[in-house]
Amino acid sequence: MMSADMDPDAALVLRVKQGDTTAFVQLMDKYKQPVLNVVYRMLRDATEAEDLAQNVFLQVYRSAHRYRVTSKFSTWLFTIVRNLCLNEIRRRSRHRAESMNASRPDQEDEPWQQFEDKKGFLPTEILLHGELEEKIQEALAELPETQRLAILLCRQDELSYEQIAKVLGCSLSATKSLIHRGREALKERLKPYLRTGLWRDQE
Fold it and tell me: How far does Cα 143 stand from its chain's mean position?
């Protein structure tokens, strides 16, 4: 069994269970950006991403009593993210084409800029300011939902392949296969926008 001492996040959740709002704020400060990154890239709508991310943390707070320290907090958190994202995608599936084709806001103060992925999907030297990022978003949107989520979760420093498998409810081998296929699909779709020889897979 995992000791709370082994996972500082687990220790914080145990304090949240006791009504410690300071501990909850610490968890939210640590994970808000990673959660926003994943949610935004799943939904491609800044306003909905903000709302859904708030719902994620609301659920964390309300469900803290259900958390067991046998699993890492980040695994539990991103399982909530997964469930809420997939529920939202299914809810609006009839309008999916319209929402996925929505243009990026031009105003500099629009909330979409909050969803900067510090690691990026591609080496920085081949980013064509704004344009390639948009193509990456479009390519991600074309992936099957579970494959897209696997790729996004793979970008999170906190999550191992084993944790991603738990979040997705898949075997480890199936998870690795999802990530591999997703990367290959992205590589194929983005070939026209990459300088020859500069693409490299990111592990």
Answer: 14
Distance between CA atoms of residues 190 and 96, nearest Å: 22
φ, ψ (nearest 5 deg) of residue 71 = -125, 155
Distance from C-alpha of 167 to C-alpha of 161, rounded to nearest angstrom = 10
Cα separation values, 122 from 48, 65, 158, Å: 26, 39, 19
pLDDT tens per residue across span 140-172: 888 999 999 999 999 877 789 999 999 999 999
Dihedral sign for Cα atoms in the order 192, 193, 199, 203 = negative
Tens digit of each residue's pLDDT (9 = 90 or more) over 22-40: 999 999 999 999 999 999 9
Instruction: Extract the tokens encoding 28.
Output: 């939210």
